[in-house]
């Protein structure tokens, strides 16, 4: 947890540890960066406002070298800030003030999304033309090259691929991936789709794999490239 509010860190640390999680708190960007470089973590709770830097910049920096899940925790809850955080690679976003139970629920949900799959799932690799979705390794490849996605984005792509050729609404997607209905005016689903397109499309501005059905939702193309889906 990287947050300069020491009292909040202490309170949340006790609460989350009572729930079975082990917490390491750092109170500025420099010490948080050093901790992440020194040992692996399962998840990062990152404040947007830090005394020695911008949490968004740190989020971007973390994402360039690691797929560790990131939950942004901040007093700035405007839509624009949330969308920017998600665009930079955050998996979820919770504005202050908040209920610790909600933070725990979101942390657990993000950890579940990043958990290793069972033996059967490890064997499942789906191919759509040049695109390969490896559920066991939780990796997406295009022409054999791994493309970076967050845990949430990987699961979102998986939901779309499972329904290839069928239009899914934003409500359906958010409900299936996050286990809760889409919040009113929540545009995060569009942000994640944009990030997925940046990773898997040859030209994200003219997508051929993940298509928008205007006014309805999104559809994953069942046949792609010249050789179609496998």
Which helices and strands, and how do they pair?
Blueprint: H1 6-18, H2 29-38, E1 44-47, E2 49-50, E3 53-54, H3 55-65, E4 70-74, H4 79-87, E5 92-95, H5 100-114, H6 119-122, E6 125-128, E7 131-134, E8 139-142, E9 145-147, H7 151-162, E10 168-169, H8 170-178, H9 188-200, E11 210-213, E12 217-220
Helix pairs in contact: 4-9, 7-8, 7-9
Describe the structure.
This protein has 2 domains: 6-114, Response regulator (Rossmann fold, 3-Layer(aba) Sandwich); 119-220, Winged helix-like DNA-binding domain superfamily/Winged helix DNA-binding domain (Arc Repressor Mutant, subunit A). The protein is of the alpha+beta class. A hairpin with a 3-residue loop joins strand 11 and strand 12 (217-220). The termini are far apart. The model is unreliable at 116-123 and 180-186 (pLDDT under 50). The protein has helices spanning 6-18, 29-38, 55-65, 79-87, 100-114, 119-122, 151-162, 170-178, 188-200, and strands spanning 44-47, 49-50, 53-54, 70-74, 92-95, 125-128, 131-134, 139-142, 145-147, 168-169, 210-213, 217-220. Strands 6-7-8-9 form a 4-stranded antiparallel β-sheet, with no helix packed on it. Strands 1-4-5 form a 3-stranded parallel β-sheet, with helices on both faces. Strands 10-12-11 form a 3-stranded antiparallel β-sheet.
């Amino acid at each position: 947890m990287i947050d300069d509010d020491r009292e909040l860190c202490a309170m949340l640390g006790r609460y989350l540890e009572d729930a079975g999680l082990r917490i390491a708190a750092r109170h500025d960007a420099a010490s948080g960066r050093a901790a992440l470089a020194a040992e692996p973590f399962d998840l990062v709770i990152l404040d947007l406002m830090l005394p020695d830097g911008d949490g968004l910049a740190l989020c971007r920096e973390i994402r360039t070298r690691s797929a560790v899940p990131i939950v942004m925790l901040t007093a700035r809850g405007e839509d624009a800030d949330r969308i920017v955080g998600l665009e930079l690679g955050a998996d979820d976003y919770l504005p202050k003030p908040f209920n610790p139970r909600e933070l725990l629920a979101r942390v657990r949900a993000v950890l579940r999304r990043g958990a290793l799959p069972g033996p059967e799932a490890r064997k499942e690799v789906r191919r759509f033309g040049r695109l390969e979705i490896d559920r066991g390794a939780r990796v997406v490849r295009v022409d054999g090259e791994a493309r970076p996605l967050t845990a949430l984005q990987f699961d979102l792509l998986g939901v779309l691929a499972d329904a290839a050729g069928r239009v899914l609404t934003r409500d359906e997607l958010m409900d299936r991936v996050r286990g809760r209905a889409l919040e009113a005016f929540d545009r995060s689903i569009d942000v994640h789709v944009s990030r997925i397109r940046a990773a898997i499309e040859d030209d994200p501005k003219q997508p051929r794999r993940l298509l928008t059905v205007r006014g309805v939702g999104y559809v994953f193309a069942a046949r792609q490239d010249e050789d179609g889906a496998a």
